[in-house]
Amino acid sequence: MQEQRDAVRRFTRTLALRPAIELQPATEDEPYGWAQPPDRADEFRADTPAVPCVVISLARERSGRLLREARRTQLLPPLVNPWGTLPAYGELLTRRPRPLAVLDVPDEGCADELGQRVGILQRLAPVTVLAPEGTCPAGLLEAGATNVLPRGMPVEELAARLMADQRWVARAAREPLSRKQKPTPMPPGPLPEHASQRVLLTLVLADPRPWCCHDLTLLLGSAEQPLTRAALRARMPRLEPHLGRLGLALRRTGGWGRFSYLVVPSPELTPALCHAA
Predict the structure, then answer these.
(1) Can you list the domains of the chain with their CATH numbers?
(2) Which letter does DSSP use for residue 95 in this model?
């Protein structure tokens, strides 16, 4: 028993000689009161530079009032793009850092196929949806939205939440892309003459997954009227010369009114498939 008491005293003296561990109070930058590892220390910083916004509306004439009020916060850009605006898509695809797409849905009358539109748009850039009151956010978040905000909230709160989304996108952009996520660079030489062809080329190179014809016609049409499949079939083969300079080709698969386009290495295509694409 005496030996045990002596061992306890020696251990106590050892602890007394060690410097005390000082726990710092929690701060906004370090919410749990612990120092972050050096490579992650800035993930919680509120002053992380925000990415820009590109605003796309499903009813531009009904978006004006809210967005004019929001611009007083100097957060949103002055331009509101209608759905289907090709330069807006081009900016989402090519601008660095990648912008945040803000999809404004002024009322329930504009919400047809909203989940599908969100799923398509998030393939171009992160998406925050400004939704009318009563919209269930679950389906839109499942479709790939970064956030769903009620557009009826006070403008100052809306601006603060959008700024938080922009900072989150900026932090996420620092993460290295996997090999499958990295977009294929644009081909050397002249690009397509028409803006629609340039956007299409950037689109198929930016995302290696197949593009369904219904998604493409919805993306490239207006909010009221999708692009016709006949027009899409006429546009897609015009990308072949530009893809060929990268050793790529366009494969068309499917049928019965539903088909998809996929960029593949040229040697994988037989002459028959090349002709069909």
Answers:
(1) 53-172 (3.40.50.2300), 195-276 (1.10.10)
(2) -
